[in-house]
Amino acid sequence: MQRTQLRWWSSFLTVVLVCAPALGAFAQSKKKPRRRAVRYTVPSYANPTANDNLTGENAAVRAVAAQALGRYNGSVVVVEADTGRVLSIVNQELALSSGFKPCSTIKVAVGWGALEEGLITGDTVLRVSRYKSINLSEALAYSDNTFFEKLGAQMGFEKVSAYARLLGFGELAGYLIENEYPGSFPIEPPANGGVARMSSYGEDIKVTPLQLAAQMAAFANGGTLYYLQYPRSDEEQLSFRARIKRLLPIQPWLPELRSGMEGAVLYGTARNSNGGQEHMLGKTGTCGEDRAKLGWFASYGELSSGKRLAVVVLLRGGRAFNGGKAAEIAAQVYRGLGATYELAIYPEPEPATPATRSH
């Protein structure tokens, strides 16, 4: 009996030893591959004001914006929403560079296009996961990628491009602003993810802080896209006159779009910035590009005096940067200006032809 048991155990161990490598390889194949963490090499801290030209800058606005940004590697742009006048650019070298991926800030353009094309209304809900369906306001507030990828796929590349370009992507935002770049916009769907990824992450698009500032100013004033002007000399400042680029047909959809941008601040991706009495609305953007983490917040707000500003914050650096952090800096700008800053009164701009809707 003992000899029989011994033979049995011997055979069993032999089988185990023979099969062990194959079983190990099978188990290894079932393991999910580890995602390698992106290594961001661009520094998060710098002296963002080091190379700025202060000529023409509004000293009071600049002081607040520079203090809010601190030592972060980033830029802050502040614009009068009702004239397009640039009041301050902190870190002019970064803001006037060739542009960066817009990340989720592109979703405002996609949302507007889907509303205009009749694909959705403010009440339309789309399924974004097995147990979750949301409407446009929630999708903007939480920056839901699936929602906008579905809209982008339905609209198609040409229509998404048309609405983004109407908002100023791919063209100069300013009027004779020295060293400004127009960013860039693809002429065909991106190889990585196609129009869907372009509609959620801004794939293959390059946008500048000035372009987003002009766009946000238009949402603040009800649809007038101004040429941004950055008067430097005393003569330019005295002769300043607002210049309209085009009138955007966004008025019917402003309640839905504004609801989403307000939701971002109240309960969504920018909720950590909601700590004061300032009233701001905006869209966050977070993604990586060229070994840097990007954090965007494109916004507009109304001061307690009733005056309206567009404020765009771009952070570029390490892992801690995101759109929420950029929103916190923007909130400090609005809070710091408060009722202490009164906008100047300028001559009325010349009328412009409304932009053509894309159908």
Describe this entry's structure for a reader:
This protein is α+β, with helices and mostly antiparallel strands and 359 residues long. It has one domain (59-340): Beta-lactamase. Helices cover 38% and strands 16% of the residues. The protein has helices at 2-30, 59-69, 92-95, 107-116, 136-142, 145-155, 157-166, 194-201, 209-221, 234-238, 254-266, 323-337; strands at 74-80, 86-90, 126-129, 132-134, 224-226, 244-247, 279-289, 292-302, 308-317. A five-stranded antiparallel β-sheet has the order 2-1-9-8-7, with helices on both faces. Helix 6 (145-155) packs across helix 8 (194-201). The chain is globular, with a radius of gyration of 25 Å. The model has no long low-confidence stretch (mean pLDDT 89).
